[in-house]
# Entry
Amino acid sequence: MSDIEIPESHPRYQSLLTRHRIEAGVEKGITSKQGLIAQGRGEAFDYLLGERTIPSADEAERVSAAYLLLAEHPVISVNGNVAALCPEEMVELAEAVDADLEVNLFNRTEERMEAIVSHLREHGADEVKGLTADGRIPGLDHERAKVDADGIGSADVVVVPLEDGDRAEALGEMGKTELVIDLNPMSRSAQVATVPIVDNIMRAVPNMTKHARDLKGASREELEAIIDAFDADEALAAAEKAIRSGDDT
Ligand code: ATP
# Structure
């Protein structure tokens, strides 16, 4: 996938790069057409946030790193938008916290599943889960309920970026700790998250990896203290305030 020929100094560089990657993802059979719509929605929220990581999102990214480091079996869910936007960064995060990567699609087709698995492998992934599909998330219709029993099915902590609200809710009901990356603080996914990360995935994931590397030597007590100090409702309120008023304090 070739990237755009626009200088990085261009004020809309990140936004144009994002659009280009999603478009290339559709052409490569990785991203669905619905994914284009999801991208448009995300972009609007990012614009209102000032296309930056607000302080409460940075904190949520650090808290997420702490959860991932403490997890018994962390899994990072990847869909068509995520694979198109930041495949290498997902692989790096998975390596930094020793998590599995699992492909999980809203509109599941075997073709797209396989295209995404190959795409992640081209970007450095070793094992990618999702194709076995021998587990089910209770409360969802057949296709959308499919997961790997030894992946998301048995995970205690799951990173769910750009997830649809129904599935995020159903995963929460299974008792999983959900770290949700979603630019819309009012989406159901963000609302049901253990940790809502209201930030663009392109910024959020590298920052989670950086925090995970910084916290690698921290004790269990230190990691638990970071988690205990976090309040999801406050993070959502801070993001909504930043969007509505431009003020993130
Ligand atoms: P819900 O059911 O949770 O209320 P939805 O069905 O509206 O949400 P979708 O449109 O399926 O959600 O999912 C897309 C979500 O992902 C949107 O909330 C959008 O803001 C978010 N999103 C899109 N692109 C990005 C991105 N690059 N980084 C972070 N979030 C994004």
